[in-house]
């Protein structure tokens, strides 16, 4: 590939990234969506006046400019309002349970993210037709429709990593889109996003990719010495991969995942474990030095090749900003080293018009990025079948086994019949700082799917507390029987916990799509797995069962 940027320098690239990330100010996550409602529905009640002096004719709730291609003609006056997504029970539902565990390590996030639209552009004859104002969503000041963001994060060894992903991962995606100069697919030039003032003036996308991979190589080593991410065309060997767009959404997501994992890993490597700190303090208080502690090497607590490299996102050194999340100044992963990690599955939904994706007449584009054993499912409208968008990253997966056999010492099978690599069940995850050198990375598996109008009924995101016990079709059939996504998510989590015996933390997100009203039409509705689910429930409450 021909390089047209500045000469590549690892030290210069790292310093630029660190300085830029330190001064970058992240906004609060938008856990709401914006839509138009008829102004008549917001008129003041004559019996209960609002006591405001401003005439309604003079109010201007929204003055953001939008491009001509995204303007929708309304039949009557509308007002732009914000609706919290977690309160929209007919569009989104979340169910959470800690199961039989003493605490919950799962987290989730849902809302809108500030990145350019990536939906497939519609023909002019379709995009310019008039739509009813009840079906109209809101455009942003850039002219693009809203991009929705859903994510479920399953922590292991603690909740520090899953909480970090809930609060920070969307910010990494937004910043990566700016760094790479990602452009909207619905507009001719850049989608109205201003990338000036960032580091794009000094580094091009090729340098960003090389810099991040070099950081992994120098900091962690091992598996990452020959690491070549799939969606980094600057490091690709074959011509087909080099032809990949360096500013695509796939490259942005891969960079965001790897950058977040690098910052979390380096932040933990520079800390000491709680046991080491207590032993050091005890040795200092003792009048006679402990011979065991004195004989230990100075780098006994190091877990990476270069653990002294500071984390660029160690938030202890960053000033708090107005509108930032409350824990902006807190160190990543707590004050002591966190040895656990988290799996993650996120979904981005983009539409070619302001009409929201849950409208039966609206097509949309879904991109799923996934590491670990959390799961994303779609339900087809025509036959009611469960369509998985993710695969479990376990040692039993042939592609993962081939990737790790050159670095892992052994694959073992535990008493439950599950394969593990050096005691780990997941071959891809955030965190797990002690296993990075053998190849436990956060390089995401990315899947893109085009949703036709009303082609799919709903989408489900679940943690392994649900998918590890229930089959995909069982999960989908339970959702079909509910009236709203909120009811569906609660029933799904409740059923998984009640029938699992020693239940793990369970989290389920149910997102309504265009074919929601027809979810029971295809494939006999939910009858396909009803007998199997009834057997699970009877067995769970049978006093003669071995689990009792």
Which parts are unreliable, with pLDDT below 50 for 5 consecutive residues or more?
1-7, 66-75, 130-135, 195-202, 308-326
Total strand segments? 15
Broad shape: globular
Give the terminus-to-terminus CA distance. 63 Å
* Rg from alpha-carbon coordinates: 25 Å
Give a short account of the largest sheet: 6 strands, antiparallel
Description:
With 548 residues, the protein is α+β, with helices and mostly antiparallel strands. Helix content is 26%, strand content 17%. It has 13 helices and 15 strands.
Brief sketch in words of this structure:
This protein has 548 residues and is α+β, with helices and mostly antiparallel strands.
Secondary structure layout:
Blueprint (H helix, E strand, L loop, with lengths): L9 H14 L8 E7 L39 E7 L7 E6 L8 E8 L10 H4 L19 E10 L3 H20 L25 H15 L19 H4 L6 H21 L4 H12 L5 H4 L46 E10 L13 E8 L3 E6 L5 E3 L9 H7 L6 E3 L5 E3 L8 E2 L13 E7 L4 E7 L1 H4 L4 H9 L4 H15 L6 E7 L17 H11 L8
Antiparallel strand pairs: 1-2, 3-15, 4-5, 5-6, 6-7, 6-12, 7-13, 8-9, 8-14, 10-11, 14-15
Helix pairs in contact: 3-6, 4-6, 11-12
Organism: Zymoseptoria tritici (strain ST99CH_3D7)
Keywords: Hydrolase, Metal-binding, Protein phosphatase
Family: Belongs to the PP2C family.
Question: What descriptive keywords fit this protein?
Answer:
548 residues; 5-stranded antiparallel sheet; alpha+beta; 13 helices; 6-stranded antiparallel sheet; single chain; disordered N terminus
């Amino acid at each position: 590939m021909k390089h047209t940027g500045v000469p590549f320098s690892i030290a210069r690239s790292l310093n630029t990234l660190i300085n830029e990330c330190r001064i970058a100010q992240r906004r609060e996550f938008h856990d709401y969506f914006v839509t138009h409602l008829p102004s008549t529905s917001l008129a003041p009640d004559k019996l209960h006046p609002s006591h405001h002096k401003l005439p309604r004719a003079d109010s201007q709730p929204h003055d953001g400019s939008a491009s001509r291609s995204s303007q929708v003609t309304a039949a009557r006056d509308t007002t732009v309002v914000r609706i919290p997504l977690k309160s929209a029970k007919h569009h989104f539902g979340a169910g959470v349970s800690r199961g039989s565990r003493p605490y919950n390590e799962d987290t989730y996030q849902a809302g809108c993210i500030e990145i350019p639209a990536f939906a497939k552009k519609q023909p002019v004859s379709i995009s310019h037709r008039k739509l009813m104002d009840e079906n109209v969503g809101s455009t942003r000041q850039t002219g693009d429709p809203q991009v929705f963001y859903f994510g479920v994060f399953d922590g292991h060894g603690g909740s520090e990593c899953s909480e970090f992903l809930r609060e920070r991962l969307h910010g990494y995606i937004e910043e990566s889109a700016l760094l790479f100069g990602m452009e909207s697919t619905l507009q001719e030039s850049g989608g109205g996003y201003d990338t000036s003032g960032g580091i794009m003036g000094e580094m091009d996308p090729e340098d960003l990719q090389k810099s991040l991979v070099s950081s992994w190589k120098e900091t962690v080593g091992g598996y990452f010495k020959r690491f070549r991410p799939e969606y980094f065309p600057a490091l690709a060997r074959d011509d087909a991969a080099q032809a990949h767009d360096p500013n695509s959404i796939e490259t942005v997501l891969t960079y965001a995942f790897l950058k977040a994992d690098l910052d979390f890993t380096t932040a933990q490597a520079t800390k000491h474990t709680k046991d080491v700190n207590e032993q050091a303090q005890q040795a200092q208080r003792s009048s006679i030095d402990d011979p065991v502690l004195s004989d230990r090497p100075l780098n006994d607590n190091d877990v990476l090749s270069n653990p002294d490299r500071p984390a660029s996102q160690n938030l202890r050194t960053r000033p708090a900003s107005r509108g930032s999340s409350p824990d902006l100044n807190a160190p990543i992963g707590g004050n002591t080293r966190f040895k656990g990690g988290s799996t993650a599955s996120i979904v981005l939904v983009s539409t070619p018009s302001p009409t929201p994706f849950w409208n039966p007449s609206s097509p949309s584009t879904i991109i799923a990025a996934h590491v670990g054993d959390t799961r994303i499912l779609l339900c087809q409208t025509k036959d009611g079948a469960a369509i998985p968008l993710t695969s479990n990253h376990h040692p039993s997966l042939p592609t993962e086994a081939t990737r790790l056999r050159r670095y892992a010492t052994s694959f073992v099978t535990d008493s439950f019949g599950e394969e593990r690599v050096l005691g780990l069940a997941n071959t891809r995850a955030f965190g797990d700082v002690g296993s990075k050198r053998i190849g436990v990375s956060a390089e995401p598996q990315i899947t893109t799917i085009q949703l036709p109008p009303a082609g799919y009924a709903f989408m489900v995101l679940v943690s392994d507390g649900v998918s590890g016990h229930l089959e995909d079709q069982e999960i989908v059939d339970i959702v079909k029987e509910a009236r709203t996504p909120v009811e569906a998510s609660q029933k799904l989590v409740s059923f998984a916990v009640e029938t699992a015996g020693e239940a793990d933390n369970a989290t389920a997100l149910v997102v309504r799509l265009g074919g929601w009203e027809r979810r029971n039409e295809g494939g006999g509705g939910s009858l396909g797995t009803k007998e199997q689910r009834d057997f699970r429930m009877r067995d769970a409450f049978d006093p003669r069962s071995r689990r009792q």
